[in-house]
Design brief:
Layout (H helix, E strand, L loop, with lengths): L1 H12 L5 E5 L6 E4 L3 H7 L4 E2 L2 H12 L2 H10 L2 H11 L2 E9 L2 E14 L2 E10 L1 H21 L10 H16 L7 E7 L2 H8 L1 H18 L5 E3 L4 E6 L1 H5 L1 H18 L4 E7 L6 H20 L3
């Protein structure tokens, strides 16, 4: 009969627990059921006693992770637990507990059941470390995949997809009339086709990477996007926006030296946001300015 009762109590919590306590919420008297040997060895908790929540909170202060302790103590009060059970039917709380020299993720669950003697609070501690670690690893892999999906494989800067995401975000700000000043700078690497045809695509890839390195060195505080084979774009805000003309001047200085030394020439054009309807309008002006710059460079002007 007692085993059937204990099983019913465990079923109320719906979990696999290393320890279960049955508590009389009126008196605070508790009794421990179904603790595994590992739990008994590490924590050496009394099998039964009074003032359950005071006892539990004392254990939290000793065994919980320092970064979890304050949060757990704030939530793990009898008033809060019973109020949450009354509202949603169950109380759950996750935190880390020190076991054998390392912190392990556990989930505390509590629910009430009606028995002949009256209402009983069932509290169980469930080891969820494997699930949490698996979720964390999945989260890390997902974040890595998302980063990689936004990076250009050749140069390591942001790619066309990342530019589109940024453009959409800026467009939302423009629509809400909350957009801070920004400028779009468009770049086109001159003579890439000639390099590819004369020296092969490996040399062409090196040519693109060196061009990208130059752009990144000049626009240190702005995101750089590779939006095409030999095309790059920069969205300048903040301090880079405040000195964008100066930075364009540095590109022109680089090109003047490159023309003299047979280096890499990078045509560029810039346009500032001027209450345009969207980012595309700013990009179009910058792109037009870039082609004008490209024509002047080819003409040796």
């Amino acid at each position: 009969m007692e085993e059937r009762i204990i099983y019913a109590r465990l079923h109320a919590l719906n979990g696999n627990f290393i320890v279960v306590y049955v508590v009389d919420p009126e008196t605070g008297r508790y009794r421990e059921f179904s603790a595994n040997d590992h739990y008994e060895e590490i924590f050496a908790q009394a099998k039964e006693g009074t003032e359950f929540f005071a006892t539990l909170r004392s254990a939290v202060r000793v065994f919980s992770h320092p970064k979890d302790t304050e949060r757990v103590l704030a939530l793990l009060t009898q008033e809060n637990v019973m109020e949450e059970i009354g509202r949603s039917g169950i109380f759950t709380l996750g935190y880390r507990i020190l076991m054998e020299g390392k912190y392990v993720y556990f989930q505390l669950k509590a629910a009430t059941v009606e028995e002949k003697e009256g209402t009983r609070l069932i509290v169980g501690l469930n080891n969820i470390d494997a699930q949490v670690r698996q979720q964390e690893e999945y989260g890390r892999k997902l974040a890595k995949a998302q980063r990689e999906a936004s990076l250009d494989a050749l140069t390591g800067v942001k790619n066309k997809h990342a530019y589109t995401v940024t453009e959409r975000a800026l467009n939302r700000q423009i629509k809400m009339h909350r957009q801070a000043p920004f400028a779009v700078v468009v770049f086109d690497v001159n003579n890439l086709k000639t390099v590819n045809d004369s020296f092969g695509h490996q040399a062409g890839d090196h040519y693109i990477c060196e061009s990208c390195k130059t752009i990144c060195e000049i626009f240190k505080r702005s995101p750089v996007f590779r939006i095409g084979g030999d095309e790059f774009a920069v969205i300048s805000q903040g301090s880079d926006y405040d000195r964008v003309e100066e930075l364009i001047g540095k590109v022109n200085e680089h090109n003047a030296e490159a023309v003299q030394n047979d280096g890499i020439v990078i045509a560029c054009g810039m346009a500032k946001y001027e209450n345009d309807a969207n980012v595309a309008a700013v990009f179009e002006r910058a792109d037009q300015n870039m082609y004008e710059n490209k024509s002047r460079l080819k003409a040796g002007l």
